[in-house]
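Protein Record: Sequence and Backbone Structure Tokens
======================================================
Tokens: labelled as protein backbone structure tokens, with as many entries as the chain has residues.
Question of interest: how does this chain fold, as expressed in backbone structure tokens?

___
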Amino acid sequence: MKSLSLALDESALLYSARGLGIFLVVFAHVIPGPQNRYIYLFHMPFFFFLSGMAACRFSSWDLESIFRRLVFLICPAVFAIFVVCILTRLNPGCVDIEFLKLSECARLSFGAGGFSGVFSAFWFIPAIGLCYVLFFLARKVPAPYLLIAVLFFVSLAFNYLVSLKFIPTLLLSAIYGFQFFLIGYLFPYRLINKLGFWFFLITFLLFLTTFVFDSALDLAARNYGSPVFSLLVSIVFSVFVVKLISLLTAFPGVLGLFSYLGQSSLFILMYHQAIHLGLEYLLPGLPLIIVFLISLIFPVLVYYLLAGRSGYLRYLGIK
């Protein structure tokens, strides 16, 4: 089993933040309730933000490294689709196995329900892959802060762009998410650690504002919330969660748990919906909290049982 080094450096904190993020994703997918509208305010922008923070640690950003990262991102998703489709074909009534709906050209780009059922979270994988490519190009720009400003004002136009049905949802999500990716890249942990009372106060006020005005944000559903305001909410909440994780250094057991989840987050993302929907079909009376725990824990166990056994397993999403 893969060992975990819990040295309290940026890598451990980054894994822990990702673990908390994937915990919220599975919770929102499995357990319905009013709390989910607050999770959806920031949970996917949060992953773009964390990916940008992780990009600071990449040793190189040449074409070869970009291609390698895309391979280790896309191949596991293709394999997961293949495995889940075979399993569901054995019992077609078990889960919704729709992947690509080809009735409209736009759906080829994963929009308008192109991802559904067991694959509903898979849109994030090609979207973050596009962010890698955009980041490779953005590094050629001499003033990255200027690029962020441009993308920030682009968000003003998203209400109009979303109404243009011929623009792929995947492309819109990648461009919108790329703003969070860039801001995460330029937002070091040392800056987050300096945030104090006033930042928490701003976060609390934004939370109250979203509670009163119900400003929703869900990148996967062509819903980008209020222009600029939703972008600001997502950024502040993302930074808040990373700050919260940094405060958990006093509780190494909790931090370690989230770090384990973070290291296996891609594996959890790809398989949790198949487990969730399969359990609901096979055991309809099972309490949702049990379904949630199994959907979260089972992929983690498989991941750590296989981790480190072969370099080829990286193509299956196992480091």
